[in-house]
User: Which sequence fits this backbone?
């Protein structure tokens, strides 16, 4: 019976769950997988090591999994192992960051150039095209960062009265140091555009210590719906806006199922993004809460069904046994 066929899916996560966006991605993957009882899911975490990520993917290839989902750490060294899986006929889904090969099955993620455009247009319209902006990048070389910066520049460069300075802050300590220095040397900064909400919030903290937080509008990216996430920070008035950067966890599992069923899927699957500010922060978090609630209802129902099945099986075996007597 085809319906009982097991589906083995491996997910290679790049960064540890200390990072809340990664944790949320892992969670949505787990939840979506749990809604499909035929799925056997294995999650590997590379803890920011490309070497470990390559080993993890090698393992999935050796174990002949049905589908491999990869959230790449870097875009280059990982290419040979992705191509190896592809050559062996294992469908590979790439999420979030890009890889420098086209030898995979599908890509899934939001358009980061578009994320940069949204941030740029928001600042242009709020400032009537007169502003000094500080862009804080996470690291210089990851594909979402490069694309966000490019999209932002494409908009900002059209306006001569918008001035932009960029710094890079690969970790929280460096935000404290580098942003502190920038604040001291620049008496007027109108906007901070940070490449994720964690950086934006850390920058807000630094500005607050110097009594500057009210004169600067902070814009982040990710828009997670948790107590420390971007949406709450918008509600609290710390961030002026955040741009939703969906993790794609549940979509990745849905895509994996389609691939196993030999359905035709797009090579490029673009997730929607949206700006969240004080006007829609409540609506957004309510919507997300509802989805979470519905998912947990489905999970509860499935557990009830499993229990019922067990009971019926016991009953059935009992009847069978009795009919032998
Ligand atoms: C989390 C993160 C997010 C960002 C994404 C880009 O690890 O840095 O904040 O949007 O990765 O790859």
Assistant:
């Amino acid at each position: 019976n085809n319906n009982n066929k097991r589906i083995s899916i491996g997910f290679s996560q790049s960064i540890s769950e200390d990072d809340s966006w990664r944790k949320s991605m892992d969670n949505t993957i787990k939840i979506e997988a749990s809604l499909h009882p035929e799925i056997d899911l294995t999650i590997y975490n590379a803890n920011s090591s490309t070497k470990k990520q390559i080993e993890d993917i090698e393992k999935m290839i050796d174990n002949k999994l049905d589908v491999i989902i990869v959230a790449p750490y870097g875009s280059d060294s990982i290419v040979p192992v992705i191509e190896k899986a592809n050559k062996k006929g294992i469908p590979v889904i790439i999420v979030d960051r890009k890889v420098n090969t086209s030898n995979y099955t599908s890509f899934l993620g939001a358009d980061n150039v578009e994320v940069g455009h949204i941030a740029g247009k928001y600042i242009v319209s709020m400032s009537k095209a007169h502003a000094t902006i500080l862009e804080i990048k996470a690291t210089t070389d990851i594909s979402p960062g490069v694309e966000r910066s490019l999209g932002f520049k494409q908009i900002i460069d059209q306006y001569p009265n918008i001035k932009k300075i960029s710094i890079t802050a690969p970790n929280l300590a460096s935000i404290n140091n580098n942003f502190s220095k920038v604040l001291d040397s620049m008496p007027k900064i109108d906007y901070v555009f940070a490449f994720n909400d964690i950086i934006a919030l850390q920058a807000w903290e630094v500005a607050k210590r110097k009594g500057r937080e009210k004169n600067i509008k902070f814009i982040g990216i990710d828009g997670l719906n948790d107590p420390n996430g971007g949406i709450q920070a918008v509600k609290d008035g710390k961030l002026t806006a955040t741009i939703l950067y969906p993790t794609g966890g549940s979509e990745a599992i849905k895509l994996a199922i389609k691939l196993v069923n030999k359905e035709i899927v797009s090579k490029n699957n673009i997730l929607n993004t949206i700006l969240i500010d004080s006007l829609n922060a409540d609506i957004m978090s309510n919507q997300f809460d509802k989805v979470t609630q519905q998912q947990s209802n489905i999970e509860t129902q499935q557990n009830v069904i499993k229990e019922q099945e067990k009971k019926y099986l016991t009953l059935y075996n009992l009847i069978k046994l009795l009919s032998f007597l």
Summary: The chain has a mean pLDDT of 95. DSSP finds ten helices and twelve strands in the chain. The two ends are 31 Å apart (CA to CA).
